[in-house]
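Bit of a strange request maybe. I'm writing a small parser for structure token strings and I need a real example to test against, not something I typed by hand. Could someone generate the tokens for this chain?
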Amino acid sequence: MKKFIALLIFVLALSSCAFAASEFDETWLVTSDTTAKGAAGNVFAELVRDKVKAANAGLVIDYFPNGELGGDADLLRQAQKGYIAIMVCQTAPVVSFIPEVAVFDLPMVFARYDGDTIDEVLNGDSEFHRKMSEAYEKAGLHLLGFMQNATYRLATANKEIRTLTDFKGLQIRTMENKNHMDFWTAIGAEPTPLAWAELYISLQNGTVNAQENAADTCASAHFDEVQKYLACTNHILYCNQMCINDKIYKALSPEHKAVLDKAVAEALQEMRPKLEDIDKTNKDKLKAGGMTIIEYDNSFFGDVLDVQGVKDLYKKIDVATNGLASTLEKSLADVAEAHKPVPVPAPVEEPAPTPAEPEAATPEA
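Reply from user aminoacidic:
Good idea to test on real output. This should exercise your parser:
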């Protein structure tokens, strides 16, 4: 028989008995997300599942993708209560449950760093990771990891947006997230929350003339058919988190904890090149569909971060996250500095020896 460590809602009444029993030879972890088949979050969850299975240690992940068990908020609530064990999603929905996750709403905070630097801060032995893990535990969850590789949410538009002033008056569809909307307002755009199902037709008929999403979402939604420009604004990190109910995690045997932790760590590393490939492939697809790609240098991101409204948003998020926003900025800067190559001094050339002057001949007597 199987030991169900996390059960679906319709068998919740049996959970306490199943959890307490010791004669069962397998531990099952119900895992769910809302990502579509083939999306980064789905591939990540499947990879963890398969690695756990390959360990053949009596731990089983029972995976339900594509919203089969509910939306993101529903799944987070279920994970908190232990009705399911593991939940995967992007960071935005988690803010309502863990306020500190709002640090991922800091506009362009990651934009000037590479994937290695970001990974060391989010998943390594950093002050930020320790404090974020504590915030998860306060919410009854255990952080397993953040999946990213310096790929981002981008903006598509029907007008060329190359400088900060080009964003003025841009009617852009955003997620219904106050921090995201405050950012777009601060740089002069006009953010408009809109149901996903209405977005394509709204872009087509001009109700809005821009939107923001990751490259794979833009390509799968065929926005190249109704948008002219893909602007690599890199305003929000395209990041998925994986968490598990904290009590369930702590109740796992040391062997099963090790199997799960190793599976997640290996999957995170294997997903990083996949994320880069997904981003590039979909940007190329959008370009082939007729979109013009707009890239920005660090001076653009600096201009945005110098906007007073953006500075105010940073302060607001820092207060809301009990200073974790400042910790994130410092951790990123410290790791980036540590990764800087040490300049190798140029070899000092020794001056060529001065040829000795010939001795004066002794005059003959």
